[in-house]
Amino acid sequence: MSKATLKERARYWFDNTMAKGTAALIGWLALVSLALIVVVSALTMWFAPDEALRHDGWPGVLWLSLMHALSPGKIAGDAGTAPFLAIMLGASLGGIFIVSILVGVLSTGLRAKIEELRKGRSRVIESGHTVILGWSEQLYTIVSELTRAHASQHGSVIAILADRDKPAMEDAIRAHVGDTGRTRLVCRTGRPTEPADLDLLSLSTARAIVVLSPETEDPDAHVVKTLLALAKRAGEHPPVVAAIASSRNMAAARLAGGPGVHLVDSDDIAARLIVQSSRQSGVSVVCMDLLNFDGGEIYLRRDPSLAGRTYGQALDAYATATVLGLRTPGGVMLNPPPDTVIGTSDEIVVLAQDDSLIRLANGTAPADERHIVPATAPAPAPERTLMLGWNGRAARIIRYLDGYVTPGSVLDVAGDHPGAGAGLADLRNLTVNVKECDGTDRYALESLGVGVYQHVIVLSDDRHDPRHADNRTLMTLLQLRDMQATLGEKYSIVSEMHDENNRALAEVTEADDIVISDTVIGLLLAQLAENPHLAEVFGYLFDSAGSEVYPRPVEDYVTTGGPVAFRTIVESALRRGETAIGYRVAAKSGEPPHYGVVLNPDRSRAVTFTAGDSVIVLAEC
Q1: What is the per-residue pLDDT across 54-113, written as a single tens digit (0 to 9) for each?
Q2: Whole-Å CA distances, 308 to 298, 311, 339, 340, 608
Q3: Where does the CASTOR/POLLUX/SYM8 ion channel conserved domain start and stop, copy by copy (predicted)?
Q4: Backbone angles phi, psi at 118, to 5 degrees
């Protein structure tokens, strides 16, 4: 190869200089302008000395040349000799060339800067902010809940990093969430699995990090890789909350994230909610009310004055809060045995409107014995349950249901999913039958003889996208409700859906309960992001080994038709080994946002209950 010539080297140097961007171009224009001004001034001093003297010599000529270069229109006001006018004309023509290039350079540079800002690649300079990594439908729920939680705070920030266009993210959040009040949203485009992209979010000064399970074929692999990237980064490590779609990946995610990560098993929680809702209508609504920031919140409180008392006595300790359980050195216990003694280091788990409103009661009126209904234990009987549809969590739902029902119970699975009935070995109490059926076909549903079942579970078909799956579920619910009305049949209907916006449409079907799994998981992630210390409490609440939330018929606890104080309901539940935390009014079960659920009610306020209302308790199955 021949040796580079001097011209080639100069051109190569010039090309590299120009490639440095807008600043380099402006620098070259400044040099050209300076050269033009010097040349014009020198020519003026040489060819028009009289004019130069009239303009105060070199300083005046330099200034005059500068004005003609920057403002070519200034030549219109010039007067003098022909050489002077010709030189000034040249300066003006050169100025037109320079100014036009300068405008183009500035316009291009500004456009490039706006495009760079649009890409969302600048660093976030914040502290105490909440970071959300990834994108899914749960993000809207999390942002909405954190906005409510920070409604009274100034300067709260939520920073979002996802592999999406920044304006598209902002538009989507604005459309789904609306006004975020005092909470400011900062969106950045990047991959949460890349350390360089994570550095954009000032993670060391963040309050908490939420890792979302993306809507891809293998979402857990993405979450695990993100947890690894977070664990390997230098600096402070704030609490991390992550959602795992499949339970079999929990161990890998826990190992990747380390001890500072709180994992939410989406599959497991959704399955438990569906099973519990199928047996006690309204469980998912109560759980959503417990998890959101719109009403009461769960707090941990240490009161030395309660040390030495029993848990049963502590139920009357607070005037404006409801006791749920205890947090001892051995862990959290919700609804422990009534005779459990509170230790000096124990914390009380309470449900209250705000922590500033939690105060000890001066005294509590006794329960009204006239309204307490004696506890009865009906003999368990075999049940018949119909499951319409099949998806990836159906086998888990059936195993959990097997732990609740009595021996001899039957579950019929009806659907056209090729995997229906798979993975159901070693069931103890349930006999499972699989039938071919299109759940949206009225004649196919009627052929099943739905009236012989006590419970019907409608699952979302994971072979379809969430929107189409919800549409099919709505069709099935409408068919079932019309069959009930036409044939006079009585059975509970529990449905699984994806989109919270479809709940309003599903209310037309009058389904007993609708489990919006994505919404529940989003609410739980928001709670843990805001209060990581409650991870033990929620872990216990969604664990079948302990007490769970149950809405139960009010007539099993107190008399109906007359005013009854909630204190009387608390006492009635306590005699059954349960903790009453609220009630649900059946007449308001279709009214959002609480759907008739009242948690942490005024204990002294009398309420008249009717048949169909429910008492919400923490109890063993």
Answers
A1: 666 777 767 766 676 666 666 656 666 777 667 776 767 666 676 666 666 666 666 666
A2: 23, 10, 11, 10, 36
A3: 268-360
A4: -65, -35
